[in-house]
Amino acid sequence: MTNPDTLLRDSRVPADRVRLANDGDLRPDGAFVLYWMTAARRTHFNFGLERAAEWARALGRPLVVLEALRAGYPYASDRLHAFVLRGMADNARRLAEAGVTHHAYVEPRPGAGKGLVAALSRRACVVVTDDFPIFFLPRMIAAAAKQIPVRFEQVDSNGLLPIYAPDRVFTTAFSFRAYLQKNLLPHLRRRPLADPLAAGLPASPKNLLAPDLLARWPAASPELLAASPAALAALPIDHTVPVVTRIPGGPEAGRAAIARFLRTNLLRYDTERNDPDARATSGLSPYLHFGHVSTHEVFAELERLEAWTEKKTKPAGGRREGFWGMSPPVESFLDELVTWREIGLNLCALRPDDAQRFESLPDWAQKTLADHESDPRPAIFTLAELEGARTSDPLWNAAQRELLRDGRIHNYLRMLWGKRVLEWTRTPREALAILIELNDKYALDGRDPNSYSGILWTFGRYDRPWAPERPVYGTVRYMSSGNTLKKIDLQRYLVEFGGPDDAARRDKRYSK
Fold it and tell me: Are 181 and 318 within 8 A, CB to CB?
């Protein structure tokens, strides 16, 4: 029997990023190596694709990339489908250029794709897929593992730190940052290749996939991959959540967003990122969520701009600045990109059931919120009123309209967006459920560890008690629209996202 460790003795993919999903054996005489692209939907800086390419070269077999899109995933809509489909189109072009068979399959109805992975794996030498610790993907991989008869590997391409490297869940950003500063550098020495296909692959025959398989699970049409209105309308998904045209999906758009941020916003990031009118944020979160770009790629660009080497790092004791030895804007951005993004991955990897649970909050937060659960609320709004941006707060309504229109809320206002819902619902648990519903339904970067970190931060996750103790909030950090407007001039933002019912309130002083 062929020893997998012998074949890939010199694998560039770190062992702590690879997990076996089943106990199947390698089949050297299979027809191809299968890479099932599920979370890292890109052809660059992708450990999963790199691992699959290594197997193809070692076994002398062609590579097949399966990229599928379900119809029945939670919150499936025109918005989310279009973002993914445009990425599939980018990948189809790139893989065709590299001579790799790419099967882009889009379910015409929920469940139609059942059996596709199993059918492909029956002719495969080995199956490689992505390791993503949240949403429906872990359940999907676990179900597929029972039907795949060959070696089945999951590969982590989520962040700079392998998600299973820590042996504990961190409860504060400070403690996680201190861990990163002590342990991250060795992992940075083992990065994914910018182009895992550059070294070439065994030739892929034209008719590599069986005709009966293609007849049952046909490749997506060019119109579907272009997310044309007619093609989307034919799918059984939510058509009330429209496509966000100003934020196109796909690796090409993601890489353009990286370049635009580095060129126009990076140098202002540390001083202006909290001002929505300044538009100094990166806009990368949707592309990171769908795996269209990699944190490693973003870091490589910052490294080049700053002429950074490992020798520039300094002990920082968990502080936000100083560790990287880079300029203040870059240090500020890296704290968001690495510390705050990957602390969410840490929780989801080690305690996936706690990502969205109220009971996962710190004991102090649960207690103080329980102590104030019966406090009178300034107002109570229904889910429909909140969803439709029909509250008495023009600033909150504007943030919600940004979410409805653009599939995102400015980073700073997203915190306020969450805090106010805590005041407007009968219980903290109801507030949490509403925030997750709105975020997962409309946000391009929803359904993500980072999103859940941000929402649960509203209730005290990764935070500490704050004085004075207040109604409803207790000692959970307080935010208000009135204080926000005193700190930031939001007139342009309010004009852009304000509604007709808000205009009369726009110039009035906030009471809170």
Answer: yes
